[in-house]
Amino acid sequence: MATYVVTGVSKGIGYEFLRQLSADPSSTVVGIVRDKPTTVKKVSEDPDLKGRSNIHILEADVTNYDALKKAAADTAKITGGSIDYLIANAGYVSQFDGFDPIGVLGEKPKELERVLKELFDTNVVGNVHLYNLFMPLVLKGQTKKVIVISSGMADPDLTTNFDLEAGSLYAISKAGMNMVTAKFSAQYKKDGVLFLSICPGMVDVGHYNNVTPEQTVGLGKTMQKFAEYAPHFKGPATPESSVKDVRSVWEKASIENGDGGAYLSHFGNKQWI
Ligand SMILES: NC(=O)c1ccc[n+]([C@@H]2O[C@H](COP(=O)([O-])OP(=O)(O)OC[C@H]3O[C@@H](n4cnc5c(N)ncnc54)[C@H](OP(=O)(O)O)[C@@H]3O)[C@@H](O)[C@H]2O)c1
């Protein structure tokens, strides 16, 4: 029996967290989304999820501090004032930088700036507020685990060893969030709170369903580099298997094992795919 708060459960990996974590009726799962009616409807029409009274959907855009503050207050009412796990899954996955090197993005400076700021607001600033606002509930919980869904794209060694050009702005935001994990761990490890950044692997959630022929060229280059990095890699995982892997990593990890503030893959190490 555990209490979870997960952001971004409207679709993709977050929806799969909602599905798997609520499968145990003794657990309580609070999902935070930007559009509550749409997710409530989706859950009520899902044969797997409908009727699960342990699912609670709250509404907050992670870039809206007041909305997050209300979500924390509403969560406390639902759970009795404590939570075991806080999962920062919501993220802005930008398309603008998904296919070209950073120097090419520089040909559109205004768009570069807009996307980079939105990435920082969502993937970094929003999660800093999320962590601070939910920390009183985490500190009162039993398990005390706080996890951000990171990305192997944020690994500087992977980037330099394989000259991985694409995804630059997104990677910058995810690398920033890895440091947030380390800094929160530095403060709260002594209180028994384990902070982790976990990459879910490459997961098929439909991000590349509508790529243009030009974008396909950029995507092909990235996939070639992934094949060089991991010759065993056969393609993206399903959300189901990825979420199982990520959960297994956070279950095994502990402050006692030296994992406080760590940046890990879904394998529990630095092998990203
Ligand atoms: N898929 C992969 O291969 C992969 C690899 C590495 C890391 N990740 C990470 O995994 C996490 C989940 O992504 P995904 O792959 O499942 O992508 P996704 O299907 O695009 O889901 C992203 C989720 O984040 C929510 N979100 C975005 N901006 C938000 C905001 N400002 N406030 C609140 N919620 C917001 C979205 O809500 P809306 O429905 O309202 O847009 C959606 O629920 C992300 O952090 C992503 O960076 C994914």
Automatic annotation (TrEMBL):
Signal peptide: none annotated. Keywords: NADP. This is NAD(P)-binding protein. GO terms for molecular function: oxidoreductase activity, acting on the CH-OH group of donors, NAD or NADP as acceptor. The lineage of its organism: Eukaryota, Fungi, Dikarya, Ascomycota, Pezizomycotina. The keyword Glycoprotein does not apply. PANTHER family: CHAIN DEHYDROGENASE (ATSC), PUTATIVE-RELATED, SHORT-CHAIN DEHYDROGENASE/REDUCTASE SDR. It comes from the Eukaryota. It holds the Pfam family adh_short. CDD domains: carb_red_sniffer_like_SDR_c. Gene3D superfamilies: NAD(P)-binding Rossmann-like Domain.
